[in-house]
Specification:
The complex is a heterodimer of chains A (631) and B (335). Chain A has 19 helices and 2 strands. Chain A has 631 residues and is mainly alpha-helical. In chain A, 61% of the residues are buried. Among the domains of chain B are: 91 residues; 88 residues, Immunoglobulin-like (Sandwich). Classes of the chains: A mainly alpha (631), B alpha+beta (335).
């Protein structure tokens, strides 16, 4: 069934060729390699954040232990939050998004490949910047929320919080650039025929996330800038003694911080919607319901920030409106849950590892959602606010809605990414260890909170009934760590010994299964024309790797080319040339890193050198290269 | 109790019983001793009942899906049409029922908020509570000042005026009332009522730095008579030293760094950086609930505060053993 002659394939190989070897990992603009870099780097930070949490759990294994100092504990819990939010959960989903969005929408790369490379390098540099604070023992220590005035220059005179404020601004550059790239890719680069009602739900999730990022991160950047101005240059934005107000920080932070939860959760929910149809052998029940629910969540998520401030003494009338919106936002999540449940009941579930993680996710996410609804009930929230009950809740939501789908996604998609199958038996062992460990670690925290244990304490007193739940949590957290380790070992094992993965090991429905595992640089031998929401199920000609020209496949040989289409109905509009590998984004990022270091240490010479390097990188990146701007 | 029993009839009865048994700790919000916390406790059991029902419904649906999975396969994947019941199921389970449950809960929320706000307007006594790094100051209208131990009369709502001297703290006594933040530049208010005499543990619940973990206090609910006596006694200046050791101890106090931070009303020590010590011997704990107020612990706290509570503002004081003994004797005489 050779539908494409070898000649165009050779031409494609030549146009899209990236040299192998170490150097190319520094210059690549291929979305798949960038996606892989995102994934591996984010998982490395996940390990760091996990080790931080295990040290904290060891310290909390019994009352009044002295394994670490209060200062060390405060740095650890602050960095655990910052790491898991900004260096793990957001980028890891960008990693999967980077790899799979272009494949799922049937194009050859992200809309702006060099911006994509830049986004990755900035993420890595921001991570190095934040962790360099650990090396000098000055990691942020006022929590990931860094409430003023505790975080201002008077109560936190060290440079710990400068690392925090500048580090978050640094990561925001990466996520904002990435989000814009996703939006343009999803709206303008879909395969011909992929009208808006044929976009895979996972891609909708990435779109909802990206739109939320574009609107949610500016308030954070503003807040961090104001904080840095107050700390460094004597401004008084949050200083009540000089007419400022510490509550301003809380508003700005949570206007970002609550949408942030959905920024992280939405693409993970998209993963769930990608895995379920494949393993129940039928299309999703209620596609439109789910898509509308995802977009509604992203929107309503901007209206509930004040529910983090129910005990700050704001007027009751204002709070009751926020309470109402906080109840409302449950409904889209409920819709998605029952759409998944309906699909599972209507289909014939095959209990492979990815689906196990999805079922575990639903159970955990429902529990976390239910305790979340409780917080909308203001009097109850005012009782458990800032207690361990909240820690339990958001780990059920965040770990439940990120780790479970993420590990499901690893088992589901790694064969496509690496070309190797993972062990199913160890996958199941990993699932059960994670599931049991997770619940042991976090369920007792509900009880500790009800027993009155406040969160963010480096130790606690005996005789209050807190010892037993804390000890169980500690044991559970190590079990959870072991379960995670099993999957990592499984991954490494599969790379060395795993059987070769076929194009479509699971019988999936979306376009990534219509190419080889791993996919070639150009993704598809022919950019396909799509006629269904489940193209790989409904268009048998796609399974052979290249759609024949008479069925709509476009090989687009003779250059580094892909297709741009219209936003709503996916009508082809233009053939666009794509840029080649380059090191300039890396140079610009290095400039940024030195610049940020210069600012944080007050080493203005270093900062100036960094700014010059950044400018050089930008000039090199944008230097005219002839008619196509590419070379 | 009635609410508790009603929920216990539900399928989650076993869990309810287990949770109730597990949640009987000394500062548990389910072992309430005041009308505010009791209202919230009843509300919690309503929320818990709803949540348990929803969770078991979803779990049962998932179980159904897994059990039904052995049905023979029919046709190619994806060829099946949307089942007619699918949309109705999503509409009813995902929208209609949640809207009914959530709007009911919202109305209950509004009712509870109104009820919980009401007693604030019928209080007779107002106590000013100031949060400090890492201790609590309480000021009474009659001039009484104390730290880390807030006395209130039993059976009536007491108004608290909550402020902070430095960073944000949060005042929380789970058995009596919901919490309220203390924020620079703001004065927040709440009310507190205990229905039975006793000591109720409270702790700062907003992260406030190194010793957030040891920013503990107690609300002591006295009978109205006892409270009257306490308040009157507490407003009086410290008694003159009654023994030679105590007299020497007062000298040690005023001639060392102690008086640079602490006040003992009736003496030359008037600083307000640290807690007022006028009636220190009346209090059961030291260092904001960190250690018991005994002779040896007091001596340890004076000589090695950083060992007791690392990061505390109080510096260590180097004293000869006889000076230390005199100082402790004096402080222990401050009833």
């Amino acid at each position: 069934m050779a539908t494409v002659t070898t000649e165009p394939l050779e031409a494609l190989e030549q146009s899209w060729y990236e040299p192998p070897g170490l150097i190319s990992w520094f210059t690549t603009v291929d979305h798949k390699r960038i996606g892989m870099k995102y994934l591996v780097t984010a998982l490395a930070f996940f390990v760091f954040g996990g080790i931080e949490s295990l040290i904290m759990r060891a310290q909390l294994g019994g009352p009044e232990l002295h394994l670490i100092s209060p200062e060390a504990y405060n740095q650890l819990f602050s960095m655990h939050g910052v790491t898991m939010m900004f260096l793990f959960a957001m980028p890891v989903l960008s990693g999967f998004g980077n790899f799979f969005v272009p494949l799922m929408v049937g194009t050859r790369d992200m809309a702006f490949p060099r911006l994509n490379a830049f986004g990755y390098w900035v993420f890595l540099a921001a991570g190095i910047f934040l962790y360099s604070a650990f090396l000098i023992g000055r990691a942020p220590d006022a929590g990931w929320f860094a409430y003023t005035p505790l975080s201002d220059g008077k109560f936190s005179p060290g440079i710990n919080i400068d690392f925090y404020a500048l580090g978050l601004i640094f990561t925001a550059i990466s996520s904002t650039g990435g989000a814009i790239n996703f939006i343009v890719t999803i709206l303008k680069m879909r395969a011909p025929g992929m009208s808006i009602n044929r976009i895979p739900i996972f891609v909708w999730g990435e779109l909802a996330m990206s739109l939320a990022i574009v609107f949610a991160l500016p308030p954070l950047t503003v807040a961090c800038t104001l904080l840095e101005l107050q700390r460094r240059f004597g401004f008084h934005f949050f200083d009540s003694g000089k007419g400022g107000d510490p509550l301003l920080w809380q508003h700005l932070f949570w206007i970002f911080g609550h949408p942030e939860v959905y920024i992280i959760v939405l693409p993970a929910l998209g993963v769930v919607s990608a895995i379920i149809p494949t393993f129940v052998r039928r299309r999703m029940v209620g596609y439109t319901w789910i898509v509308v629910a995802e977009m509604a969540t992203a929107l309503i998520g901007f209206g509930v920030w004040t529910h983090h401030m129910f005990v700050t003494g704001l007027p009751q009338v204002a709070l009751s409106f926020v309470s109402l919106v906080s109840f409302m936002i449950t409904i889209p999540s409920g819709v998605q849950i029952f759409a998944w449940v309906a699909t599972l009941i209507a289909g014939r579930p095959v209990l492979r590892t990815p689906l196990l993680f999805v079922i575990g996710f639903i159970l955990v996410f429902v529990l976390g959602g239910l305790s979340g609804v409780m917080f909308a009930a203001i009097p109850f929230d005012a009782q458990v606010h800032d207690s361990y009950f909240v820690v339990a809740h958001f780990h059920y939501v965040m770990v439940g809605a990120v780790i479970f789908p993420l590990f499901g996604a690893l088992y589901y998609w790694l064969p496509k990414m690496t070309g190797k199958l993972m062990s199913e038996r160890w996958g199941k062992a990993s699932f059960w260890t994670i599931f049991v460990g997770f619940n042991l670690a976090f369920f007792p925290m509900h009880i500790a909170g009800i027993l009155g244990q406040p969160r963010r304490t480096y130790t606690y007193q005996a005789g209050l009934g807190w010892t037993a739940p804390n000890l169980i949590s500690t044991v559970g957290s190590f079990l959870l760590g072991a379960g995670i380790l099993i999957t990592f070992v499984n991954w490494v094992w599969s790379l060395r010994r795993g059987p070769e993965a076929p194009n479509d090991p699971w019988g999936g429905d979306t376009l990534e299964w219509a190419t080889t595992s791993p996919p070639p640089e150009y993704n598809f031998a022919a950019v396909p024309t799509v006629r269904s929401l489940e193209p790989v199920w409904d268009q048998p000609e796609l399974r052979d790797g290249a759609q024949p020209a008479d069925q709509g496949g476009r090989a687009l040989v003779g250059g580094h080319l892909t297709l741009s289409t219209s936003m709503l109905d996916g009508t082809p509009r233009a053939v666009i040339p794509m840029p080649h590998a380059t090191a300039w984004p890396l140079v610009a990022t290095a400039g940024l890193l030195f610049g940020f270091w210069g600012v944080v240490f007050g080493a203005w010479l270093l900062g100036g050198a960094g700014a010059l390097l950044f400018a050089a990188g930008m000039i090199g990146w944008h230097w005219p290269k002839g008619e196509t701007q590419e070379g | 109790m009635r609410a508790r029993r009603r929920v216990a009839m539900a399928p989650g009865g076993v869990i309810v019983a287990a949770a109730t048994a597990a949640c009987a700790g000394p500062a548990s919000m389910l072992r309430t001793a005041g009308p505010g916390a009791t209202r919230v406790e009843h509300f919690w059991w309503l929320l818990f009942g709803i949540s348990a029902a929803v969770f078991f419904f979803v779990a049962a649906m998932l179980a159904l899906a897994v059990v039904r999975r052995r049905r023979p396969s029919q046709g190619d994947p994806g060829r099946e049409v949307e089942p007619g019941w699918g949309h109705r199921f999503i509409l009813v389970s995902g929208v209609v029922i949640p809207v009914i449950i959530l709007s009911t809960t919202f109305l209950v929320t509004l009712r509870e908020m109104t009820a919980l706000a009401k007693p604030l307007h019928s209080t007779r006594l107002t106590v000013a509570v100031v949060g400090h790094l890492w201790w609590w100051e309480a000021r009474y209208p009659n001039g009484a000042v104390t730290a880390n131990e807030l006395h209130i009369p039993v059976g009536e709502p007491v108004r608290l005026e909550l402020t902070t001297a430095d960073v944000i703290h949060s005042f929380w006594v789970p058995q009596l009332q919901t919490k309220m933040d203390q924020i620079p530049g703001h004065t927040n208010e709440m009310w507190l009522q205990a229905d039975a005499p006793g000591r109720y543990r409270g702790q700062c619940s907003q992260f406030c730095g190194l010793q957030h973990a040891h920013m503990i206090f107690f609300v002591v609910a006295d009978s109205p008579g006892d409270f009257q006596a306490w308040e009157t006694r507490e407003a009086q200046p410290a008694a003159a030293p009654s023994s030679p050791a105590a007299a020497s101890g007062l000298g040690v106090f005023t001639s060392n760094t102690c008086a640079g931070c602490h006040a003992i009303r009736g003496t030359s020590a008037v600083a307000t950086v640290g807690p007022d010590l006028t009636h220190l011997a009346d209090r059961a704990t030291l260092a904001a609930g960190t250690i018991d107020n005994t002779q040896s612990e007091l001596a340890r706290w004076i000589t090695d505060p950083q060992g007791v509570k690392p990061g505390a503002i109080m510096p260590p004081t180097q004293l000869s053993s006889s000076d230390l003994a005199d100082l402790v004797a004096y402080l222990q005489s401050l009833k």
